[in-house]
UniProtKB/TrEMBL annotation:
Lipoprotein as UniProt keyword: yes
Keywords, ordered alphabetically: Endosome, GTP-binding, Hydrolase, Lipoprotein, Magnesium, Membrane, Metal-binding, Methylation, Nucleotide-binding, Prenylation, Protein transport, Transport
Protein name as annotated: Ras-related protein Rab-4
Record-stated family: Belongs to the small GTPase superfamily. Rab family.
Organism: Scyliorhinus torazame (Cloudy catshark)
Cofactor(s) needed: Mg(2+)
């Protein structure tokens, strides 16, 4: 049976190698921890249909390799992404220091309007923490990102990270800030017959005036 959904959003999971990106994706889709996780080679893919603010949204998620040698391959997947999880490891200062580069790539290659949530992963390893919640929170604020600490092991805040990002995209569509019709927006309508109903209220009125119907 084919899935029905209102919108499809293209998501990315980006960040340095070893931050637990694949584990986050696996936890989100399968609701369990991926025990035997090797470094991603190139790009992996997963999808899930979720309910966001009364709408059914299919998230099409690309999990990119964090190793430098795959950077040119993974960059080509950034194009047309509507949302991204930018992941660092709270026990690794090095992965936190690399965030600016990943953020620049996302905003340059994907879309200036990409909605990004910063995820400090491995929250379960709090005793080995090298990056405080406060400084990451400040980084997020300065760069206009949402922020959550997550644990792919326990599942804490994993679903919330994806849903929070999707909810923000949906709000921007409804306010007219994001246009699903625009090429490379990373957003598609599910059922075309409902497209008219889903346009922001202002646009509906405008269309009625134009056709005098």
């Amino acid at each position: 049976m084919s899935e029905t959904y209102d919108f499809l959003f293209k998501f990315l999971v980006i960040g340095s190698a070893g931050t637990g990106k694949s584990c986050l994706l696996h936890q989100f889709i399968e609701n369990k921890f991926k025990q035997d996780s090797n470094h991603t080679i190139g790009v992996e893919f997963g999808s899930k249909v979720v309910n966001v603010g009364g709408k059914t949204v299919k998230l099409q998620i690309w999990d990119t390799a964090g190793q430098e040698r795959f950077r040119s391959v993974t960059r080509s997947y950034y194009r047309g992404a509507a949302g991204a999880l930018l992941v660092y490891d709270i026990t690794s200062r090095e992965t936190y220091n690399a965030l600016t580069n990943w953020l620049t790539d996302a905003r340059t290659l994907a879309s200036p309007n990409i909605v990004i949530i910063l995820c400090g992963n491995k929250k379960d390893l709090d005793a080995d923490r090298e990056v405080t919640f406060l400084e990451a929170s400040r980084f997020a604020q300065e760069n206009e990102l949402m922020f959550l600490e997550t644990s792919a092991l326990t599942g804490e805040n994993v679903e919330e990270a994806f849903l929070k990002c999707a909810r923000t995209i949906l709000n921007k569509i409804e306010s007219g800030e994001l246009d699903p019709e625009r090429m490379g927006s990373g957003i598609q309508y599910g059922d075309a017959s409902l497209r008219q109903l889903r346009q922001p209220r202002g646009m509906q009125t405008q269309n009625k005036q134009q056709c005098n119907c």
